[in-house]
Amino acid sequence: MYTEKDLFSNNDEQNRGNFDTDVGILELFGKETLENLQSIISKVTGLGFVTADFRGEPLTCMTGFTPFCKFTRERGNNGKLCNLSDAFGIVRSAITRKYCIYFCPCGLMEVAIPIIVHGKFLGGFLSGQVRCNDAPDDIPRFSGLIQPEYLEEDQAQVDEYFAQLPTYEYQKFSDIAELIYLMVNQLAENEMLRQQQYDSHKIQEQKLTSKIKDKMKKIDEELKGKTYADEQTKIKLKE
């Protein structure tokens, strides 16, 4: 079974640049915008979504999660194992700089979609929760095992929820992942550019305001100096 230490063992000096924790996806988009985006994509694709940081920790509310995944995560320590599986996908996508399709502990296909702006990894989308019968043999599989003792007493419910899971052909799932990857990263680039332009305009505005204040101060000092000189002249004329 993978542990958190195992998952982040690649985060050594050689790979440390893959994890740009000083910049966050929440700071770029905002939680509400991300959740709205998740909702729209989930409705179109039928996939579950959540936005995560570089460790796979969720940053937004879960959108479109299947009853099977919700039920499983709530039983015993399975939630922690599911979180490690999420981290497994996110770390791989951060290192490879491309989306990573993999199988979770329950054998469901998922994808980690990195959000990268100007070469910096900001976080990513975790999506999927589908069955797939034609996936290539080289698709990564998280080796942790769901603890069955927490599910056996509700096995009928588990089987019912599992039967409700959608089934996707691998190529269709891969095409969806590619589309989301291109779309979300383009949105991120545009938003970063917009904020940079806004910041640049604010800096220019502050510089211009400072120049105007300095000019007004100089004019005010000149006027005061001229007024004083005129008063001295009047005094001399009276004498």
Structural description of this entry:
By secondary structure, this protein is an alpha+beta fold. 54% of the residues lie in helices and 12% in strands. It has seven helices and four strands, in the order H-H-H-E-H-H-E-E-E-H-H. A four-stranded antiparallel beta sheet has the order 1-4-3-2. A hairpin with a 2-residue loop joins strand 3 and strand 4. Helix 4 packs antiparallel against helix 6.
Strand order of the largest sheet: 1-4-3-2
Unreliable stretches (pLDDT < 50, length at least 5) are 1-21
| Mean pLDDT, all residues | 79
Helix segment tally:
7
Helix-strand makeup class: alpha+beta
Fraction in beta strands: 5-15%
The end-to-end span amounts to: 103 Å
What is the rounded Rg?
29 Å
Give helix and strand order, one letter per element, not per position: HHHEHHEEEHH
Shape designation: elongated
- Roughly what percent helix? 40-55%
Number of strands: 4
Topology:
Layout: H1 4-7, H2 25-29, H3 31-45, E1 48-52, H4 67-73, H5 78-96, E2 100-103, E3 109-117, E4 120-130, H6 155-163, H7 170-238
Which tags fit this structure?
alpha+beta, 12% strand, elongated
Give the gist of this structure.
With 239 residues, the protein is of the alpha+beta class. It is built from 7 helices and 4 strands. The protein has a 4-stranded antiparallel β-sheet with strand order 1-4-3-2.
